[in-house]
Write a structure and sequence with these properties.
The protein has helices spanning 2-6, 10-23, 30-43, 47-62, 75-86, 90-102, 109-123, 127-140, 147-159, 163-176, 183-194, 200-206. The chain has 207 residues and is mainly alpha-helical. It is built from 12 helices and no strands. Helix 2 (10-23) runs antiparallel to helix 3 (30-43), helix 7 runs antiparallel to helix 8 and helix 10 (163-176) runs antiparallel to helix 11 (183-194). The chain is 72% helix and 0% strand.
């Protein structure tokens, strides 16, 4: 299943995981297979199916007795948050993202959750909170911040009247990946911020 997922074959991987779950109901790998089935459903845009699978995993994990689910402990709330975000259930998304961020364990899902939290605020027009979430990610884990997130950070900073912070985010976007899909918009926005400061020469290079 994992090999199929690694090559983007999510539909085939979903089918393989489903068959494994049906054929080996007593396998100790049931939780792992169920998790991978949920990830495949998520990647295929099947939000309801993915949510159902992850909630079943949560129920299994929270049941009394030993659990084989600990390896996915940070992944579960992250994927539930991502699904809630895509379905417009922002309060639930924020709660799940914050669960991942607050975990004392080190996890590759933490910077992704920090970005997700920022986007959830951004979609609600809550620029102050969005700026804080994005800026925390930019300063603590710069390698995890994408061009689109840097553009949103710059946009929030500009709306908040924080021109220097806006220019810093836009410059980082252009420096980090000048061929990013957001690069042209970032260059235009940066130029527009430079002109009122009398820095027309710098702005012309960007336009």
């Amino acid at each position: 299943v994992q090999r199929l997922m690694d090559t983007g074959g999510y539909a085939r991987a979903y089918t393989a995981a489903t068959q494994f779950l049906r054929d080996y109901p007593d396998s100790p790998l049931q939780s792992e297979a169920l998790f991978r089935q949920g990830v495949c459903a998520f990647q295929l845009g099947q939000w309801a199916a993915a949510r159902d699978i992850f909630q079943r995993l949560r129920t299994r994990h929270n049941a009394p007795g030993p659990s084989a689910f600990s390896a996915f402990e940070e992944a579960l709330p992250f994927y539930l948050a991502e699904i809630a975000y895509r379905e417009g259930r922002y309060a639930e998304a924020m709660s799940q993202y914050q669960t991942v961020i607050a975990s004392p364990r080190s996890s590759p899902y933490k910077p992704l959750a920090q970005a997700g939290l920022g986007w959830t605020y951004y979609q609600q027009g809550r620029c102050a909170e969005s700026f804080a979430a994005f800026e925390s990610l930019r300063t603590s884990n710069a390698g995890a911040i994408t061009g689109s997130t840097l553009f949103a950070l710059g946009d929030c900073a500009q709306r908040l009247g924080r021109t220097d912070d806006a220019m810093q985010a836009l410059r980082q976007l252009l420096s980090q990946d000048p061929h990013n899909a957001w690069a042209d918009d970032a260059a235009l926005r940066l130029g527009e911020l430079l002109v009122p400061q009398g820095r027309d020469g710098e702005a012309r290079v960007l336009f």
